[in-house]
Amino acid sequence: MKSQILFGLFLFLIWGKGFASEPVYPVWLIPDSLKENANVVIRFDDFSVDISNNYNAHISNRYAVTILNSRGDDHAEFLAPYDKLAKLSSFSIRIYDANGQLIEDVKSKEVQDYSAIPGFSLYQDTRVKYYKPSIRKYPFTMVISYQYTLNGYSQLPRWQPQSSPDMAIEKAVFTLSMPEENQVKWLEKNMPNERTERRDGKFITCTWEINRLAAFKPEFMQPYMKDVLPVVLVAPLDFNLEGYKGNMETWESYGLWANQLLEGKNNLPEETQIKMRELIAGSADTIEMVRRIYQYMQQHTRYVSIQLGIGGFQPFDAETVDRVGYGDCKALTNYTKSLLEAVQIPAVYNLVRAGDEASRIITDFPSQQFNHVILSVPLANDTLWLECTNQDMPFGYLGTFTDNRRALAITDKGGVLVRTKSYEADSNLICTTATFHVDADGNCNADFDICYNGLQYDEVFGFIHADAETQRKWLIDEFYIPNSELTDYAVTNLPGLTPQAKLKVNFEINRYGVKSGKRMFVALNPVDAFPDIPAREEERRFDIELRESYIHTDSIVFKLPAGYRIEYLPPQVELSSDFGQFSARVEQADGMVIYHRCLKVVEGRYDVSTYNEFYDFYSKIVKSDKAKLVLTSSDL
């Protein structure tokens, strides 16, 4: 009997293996502590960079990511750009259900393969492989692996396994291997553990490991995510990219390499040079001459993006851009530089990290940290900055995309760190004046006049150049006044070194004044109220970062209905702190109430220890912005 039981168990184990494989990353193995605040869990991430010499390297990554719910869908994809310098040698994608059972082994033909920039013949060798599953039954797990061979490089990938706050990490390992004679440098930020280092003959292997790193809730006005998440940056010292040898020990040496890539790229056709000389004829003012040439460039080119291979660093020559009429930021900046040099106006090519939400470069770690190029024109007592990729951008204006940050000026003597134009608070204004005609039923006709100045011009830049349907939708969403109808609007665009836009808007609003018995309650701040802030954090984790200095002023006249008198006016509010200043007051005169408000925000990074003071400052602003005027009917 005993032997029969053992034989039966043996058959069960054999058949079991035939019908159900061993689970792969089943969801029940995820600790509860890693599910808190998480939409995604990295079960395992094995990332390695193996450097052969200053020309070749091999990159390998195998990772498993569990998508807990639909909010994690952005992480459920495979995206692999490649070209002749970065060869994607192999990849695989498998998908498992919550129990760890295989539900899809993705075939190569199911993965899209397309040109990185379709329709532009100059960029046909840059391609992308992309796959996104259509699974909507959560949770599920993707196990992805891929290998790259780099045939020349000037940058190496950063390791940042936790790419967003809603991502938890079970285990992640980064291995960097290099020969002693071709060492690289690295910079660790926010790493929870020390790296380990091993020497094996003439090779050095460094390993970083992260275990059980929880997801977390973002905090109000915290620093950029890239500045607070764990990361290891890696950069070569000596490198070779398609025969262009360089060194990255200093910004100066890196700039010398970048300057090599510009040599011989300013070859404009003679007829275009003649055209530039004719264009500036009659002007002796440098700014006016630069303006004319800049606007010529805007009218005769368009922008496309290219970030791979040597094309990610070297612009196409000016003659090619002149002929085809398009280029990326490098090509268009170099083209504009060449147009200016054709009339003996020197200009400087600058590498910059662009983006409204882009973290700033690490100045003590010379490396390829840039994603954009802009042009500067030195003047006697100032510098003109030119964004060459937008055909509608006002001359000499950078906007929040590239303002007030370090850039690397590329000169014949190497790279020099410079700072782009900074727009002070007094230049960054939104000034609102409005008149509300309130009737006895609480309905209003409201006229707004709003001026956007400096960096606040970015708020309406897209609106100015949109079609009428998009403009109307933007106005309704931006003003968001319940029970209102947009009846008319007009915009005046005043481009310049510090641009300005003026907007006139009219709304008909039903029941703006809320009646309750004999009283009517009228909100004093209809469109510029500071949004509610999250509840006070018991244990603040990060510093406070205010990324832009600006001033908002409001002056709103409420013309009161006949038969109503004022029962209550909110008290005056005056606030002052390191973070800024705020004031609000109400005055009455001749059947009117006039509301005055001013908010000034001071850019800066403030220590976490000031959080309570910061929270109190903004809480008082929110409370003030909710203030209401109370009217009483004299007829009841």
Give a verbal description of the structure:
- By secondary structure, the protein is an alpha+beta fold.
- It contains 11 helices and 36 strands.
- The protein has an 8-stranded mixed β-sheet with strand order 5-4-8-2-1-9-12-11, with no helix packed on it. An 8-stranded mixed β-sheet has the order 25-26-24-23-30-34-33-32, covered by helices on one side.
- Helix 7 links the parallel strand 16 and strand 17.
- Helix 7 crosses helix 8.
- The radius of gyration is 30 Å and the shape is globular.
Provide the fold topology.
Blueprint (H helix, E strand, L loop, with lengths): L1 H18 L12 H4 L4 E12 L4 E12 L10 E5 L3 E11 L5 E4 L6 E4 L11 E5 L8 E12 L15 E13 L4 E6 L6 E5 L2 E11 L11 H4 L2 E6 L1 E4 L2 E4 L3 H10 L9 H10 L6 H15 L1 E2 L14 H7 L1 E2 L1 H13 L6 E5 L19 E7 L4 E4 L19 E6 L2 E6 L9 E10 L5 E10 L4 H7 L3 H12 L4 E11 L5 E10 L4 E3 L2 E5 L20 E3 L3 E10 L4 E5 L4 E5 L2 E10 L2 E10 L2 E3 L4 H15 L2 E6 L3
Parallel strand pairs: 1-9, 16-17, 23-30
Antiparallel strand pairs: 1-2, 2-8, 3-7, 4-5, 4-8, 6-7, 9-12, 10-13, 11-12, 14-15, 18-19, 18-21, 19-20, 21-22, 23-24, 24-26, 25-26, 27-28, 28-36, 29-35, 30-34, 31-36, 32-33, 33-34
